[in-house]
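User: Sequence in, structure out. Go.
Assistant: Echoing your sequence, followed by the structure tokens.
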Amino acid sequence: MSKEKKKQSNVILFFKRVKELWANPRGRAAILLGFYGCFLLFVVGGVRTSLSNEQKNMNDEPSIKQEETTSFDTMTNYEFEMKVSKNNEMIAFQGKRNGTSQYFVNKETNQAYYVEEKTIYQVIDGVKKPLVDPLFSIDITKFQPDFIAKLLDQSTLDYTTNYSSGVVKKSYILSLPAFMKFMYGTTVSSNEVITLVTTEKNKKMEQVVLDLLNYQKTVDMDSTKMSIEITYKNVDAVEAFHID
């Protein structure tokens, strides 16, 4: 007998056997149970395949990390604009900082300054030279984020203003003796205060304004204004730099 005829004969015998079993109630139950079992295996296999493919797709997708932001007290990489107002005079500086290196330019005279390891230099023809005379009666380069954060920690929050744009302004009061202690390590007796106003958006510090008139009056009683306004931008985007 050929293989083809043998195969056909086996199929006929199989269906004949199924027909015989179907005629018997117990056989019919066994056949139905077999069909249900095969159907269940098919469904379970499909579900497993679907879940496996879904998990694979999830693994293939790039993970989305929550944006990490630099806290103000540890901020050492940024660009900034600083406006120093004294009486009727205002001087604006544009600058950048990366780590312990800081570079800023007087926007009116284009005189450049370079700070390295807390030492201030003038930059003339691309070369740094020691600064002979101080820029102001107060060292403006000391007002770095970590120092301002310490002042804020010791200050008393006076009021908070929330704007619909998401901007939050906070006003702080710090006693003059506490400020002098932080600034120079000296002890003075005074009831005067200084104020600090911060501007934040999305929990990021954008601007700090310090009203230092009461400090300036300890240097010059005739002073009518002394403030420092610092605006920050491009945080963590300044490349390393150095001036010889």
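User: And one key feature?
Assistant: The chain is about 30% helix and 35% strand.
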